[in-house]
Every structure is written in structure tokens, then in C-alpha cells.
Amino acid sequence: MGPIEEIAKRRTFAIISHPDAGKTTLTEKFLLYGGAIQTAGAVKSNKIRKGATSDFMEIERQRGISVSTSVMTFDYAGTLMNLLDTPGHRDFAEDTYRTLTAVDSVVLVIDSTKGVEAQTERLMEVCRMRNTPVIVFINKLDLEGRDPFDLLDELEEKLSIKVRPLSWPIGVGATFKGVYDLYDGDLRLFEAIKTKREAEAVQVSDLNDPQVDKILGAEAAATLRQDVDLVNGVYDPLDVAAYRAGQLAPVFFGSAFNNFGVREVLDTFVRIAPPPGPRETDQGTVRPEDPAFTGFVFKIHANLDPNHRDRVAFLRVCSGSFKRNTFYHHVRSGKKLRFANPTAFMAAQKTLVEESWPGDVIGLFDTGNFKIGDTLTSGANLNFRGIPSFSPELFRELVNKDPMRSKQLEKGIRQLTEEGVAQLFTQQPGNKKIVGCVGELQFDVIRYRLEHEYGADCAFQSIQAYKACWLTSNDPAALQEFIRVKSMQVVQDKDENPVFMAPSAYMLDLERRNNPAIEFHFTNEFKTLQHA
Ligand code: G4P
Questions:
Q1: Pick from 277, 281, 356, 344: which is nearest to 320 by CA?
Q2: Which of 129, 143, 435, 530 is the most buried if burial means most Cβ atoms within 10 Å?
Q3: CB atoms closer than 10 angstroms to residue 525
Q4: Which of 29, 257, 258, 262 should be mutated for ligand 1, with most atoms under 8 A from CB?
Q5: Measured between alpha carbons, how far is 95 from 298 in angstroms, rounded to an integer?
Q6: Structural domains of the chain ordered from first start
Q7: 482 alpha carbon to ligand 1 midpoint, in Å?
Q8: What distance in angstroms lies between residue 26's CA and the mean position of ligand 1's atoms?
């Protein structure tokens, strides 16, 4: 098979959701259909169990699972699916945001009893930054959920995306009878699946056929006819180009737990989801069919075995092909690196990879060369865009409790932030270290890992900070003056970019108004955003 066929048959995607909406359950059903697992319950939840925030064994368990399920590869209807896992806990959301930089599309799971939740909105904001195509699965139709029209309105309003239902529920909760496939015109009946692996489809050529009344009962049949008329009146037919441009989300209804409505999502997914596409770099666009190899690192797992300082860097192949035992150019350091054991992961199994194609994700064993966002190429000096650091939401000063071990602390915090566990900002003079995280739990993880992996003892002290804003200006003198005047609130990120630690929303607003020559950015990827 040549490169063009290899690229065309791949779909690289993630399933995302607010915790508990059903991401793990849907993942499992996808893997069952793909033949990658044989029994339900084989996919371990990577969720940190409720109430386990102080249980560090739980965090280690979660890290162990997430390395083995980082990429789940399976075959469905002749399509090679690379399903990228995302953490199940909102405190690790930044890890999810970065994983989204490595996919070509996503499936978003919504709990029909809850609608659009906080984490759903954030995840969609990240998808919109690069116009990632989204298919929505509204789950848990077997429970008393919300009205489907209300749910669709809420999706459009809160996620700022147009929607197009492709299936329609017949009743909800106790009265849930099945779904009507708006694309094929099939009725799929819920009762059937209690004994079988999936619903039985009844083909109906015309919804007005009296057979529909017999199957559903007169009342449900009348409601369905009304609903379908309304759907077809309100929503335009599915525009695949608008979906691929990230402007329109097809919506399905079902119940992942009961394996109901899952096959419809998969079948539509393989039909419309985009294959690996072009990506932007600082040297222009890289196309998957370009012959020269390029790829970038979006995730690093370190020190899984405390006895060995081993790290696994996860690399997404963007163009050309990656081959085992071949020297590649590490753009940031200029080093030539070669990998004897590039790995693909599937559940608990690892397999050695001889050659990988665009869209594939491989694990590279690393002795400390990689940082998140690094580019690897067959020789070109280019850097991929779109692997931003986001402004963290919580900030603490890192305080060393054991001066004899300050070297270990320095090394540990540097490595952990390279791994993407948190962001590190430094204030000069004084070398004060400020750690920024998305969730409270991450501070516990850092303290625990610094102690167990580096033998360092630290504490975190509260500081007054509301947001980290990366600063740029077309007027270097104005920027220098701002940094001088605000020296107590300006820190540097890992690449020595100036960052303003806004103490409050009010102060941020005030500084923005008082300093029109300066731009305040909420991710470190200001260049891309400026041009977006
Ligand atoms: P997550 O990965 O998005 O966090 O969600 P997960 O799949 O773990 O699902 C969260 C809970 O919702 C699980 O129950 C799961 O069984 C349930 N669930 C998933 N899909 C459906 C559905 O279609 N209908 C109903 N009624 N429930 C569903 P749990 O009690 O937290 O876990 P478990 O003991 O079942 O594993």
C-alpha cells in the first residue's frame, strides 16, 4: 500500500466529555465493534475515583492506565482508527487540551439528563481554536433526560456551533422506544437489545405507514411524525463540508451502556470524518502526503518506574513516514536521534512499530531530550504551531522545605513541567518559582512526585493571581516600560517570555485599558491566534 492509501484509511480522533457523561463506556463499545477487545469491562476507567483526592496510589494507578491506553488502534469497516485517550478528571484538563492538538476530529458525549456541562464548554472552545470537526452523541436516553429540542438549542447556544440531528429519539427514559435514523429512514427499536448485541432495524419507507403505529403505538408514532417534520423544517440537510470545517455538528441520540445508537455513530464517523490533514508550521503548511517525515510531541509520561528514569514521548506523525532505527532531526536541540523501540499501545499490550504513517501516534522511549511541543523531522528546521500552553487557573508559589535538596527540587520541577503536569513561571530577581495548574489535585500530584521521584520536600503557598497573560507589543519600549513598572507582577515562562500575573479581573481590565500598545494573551501561542 502506498502513502496516499495509508493516509486515506486513517482516522485519528478523541472521545471527549464532561466526567461521567459516558466517554469510557462509548470508548469500550467502539473497541468492541472494532474487535480490539472481546468483552465489556475490558477498558479501565482512567478516572480518579471520587473521594480519592488524597489517595496517591490512585493517581499512580491512573498514570499507569493512561500510558497503556494513550492510543487505541483498531480497524472498523476497512478504516484504521487511532482513538486517543484523554484524562477522566477535570484537574488534568490541560492534558486533554494538548491531546486535542493531535487529533483530526472528535466525538463529544453529552449526558441527556444534564445537557451541556462546564467541561463540555471548555473542551469545545479548544476544538474551535483549530476548527476541529465534532460529532455529538447524546447519551443515556434510557434515563429521564431533557427534551431533545431543548438539548439541541442548548448545544447551539452554549457551544456556538450549528447542529444537525441524524437520528431522533422516540420517547425518553421509561417511554424510550428507540431511535429513528433520519439518514436511512430506519426505525431502531430499543427493546431488542436486551438480548442481542445491537438493536434490530425496521426499514420504513414512509413514516405515515400504519405499520409504524403498530410498532410504536399510535401516540408515540404521532409524536415521532411531528418531531421529524419539525426537524426537517428547522435544520438544513447535513453539509459534510461545513462539518469538516468545524462549523456544523451532526448529532446522534442513544445509550452507550445499552450499546444503543453506537453503530450509527461509528458508521457515520467512518463515512464523513476527515483523514489526516495539513498542519501549520512556522515554515508554512506541511501536508501528510509530503514525502519528508515530520511529527510533534504532544504528551510525555515520565518516571513510571521510579527505578529507571524512563520517559515515553508521544509523537503524532504529520507527514512522510517514521521508520524504526533511523536518525531524525530534533529541531529544538539540533541533535540527531534514533529510536530502536518505537511503540504502539493497545490496552495493556505494546507492539514494536517498524513504520508509521501520518495520523499515527507512537510512543518513543526518551532519556530526557523531549519537551511537549517539540518537532522531529527528517532534516527540515520547522516547528509545528498549535500546541499552546493555556493560562492556568490556580497559582501557588513553590517553597523549598529542605535547602540541602534544592538541586533535586529544581530538576524535579523542571522535568515535571516539561512533562506538562503544570506550568512553571519564574520571577527575577530572586528566582521565585510560581506553579500554575488547572486543578487543585495537580498540586498534590506535584508534591507527591517531587518527594517520591526526586527526594525533594516542598510546600505550596497561596499567591494572589487571577490569570497569566503572555505579553507582546509592536512597541518594544512600551513593553519594557510596562515590565519595569510592574516588575512585581511580571514573571517569565519556561521560554523566558514575559508574562503578566494579573491579580484580579478588575486589574487585568484596567491594565489593558491603560496600556493599549500592549497585547495580553491567554495562551502562549499568540502568533497563531493573531493570524487566526
Ligand atoms: P466518563 O468516562 O465520561 O466519565 O463516563 P463513564 O463511561 O465512566 O460513565 C459514567 C457512568 O454512566 C457509569 O456509571 C456508566 O455505567 C453510566 N452510563 C454510561 N452510559 C450510560 C447510558 O447510556 N445509560 C445509563 N443509564 N448509564 C450510562 P457508574 O455507576 O459511575 O459506573 P459503573 O459502575 O457502571 O462502571
A1: 356
A2: 435
A3: 20
A4: 257
A5: 9
A6: 3-272 (3.40.50.300), 279-377 (3.40.50.300), 394-531 (3.30.70.3280)
A7: 51
A8: 9
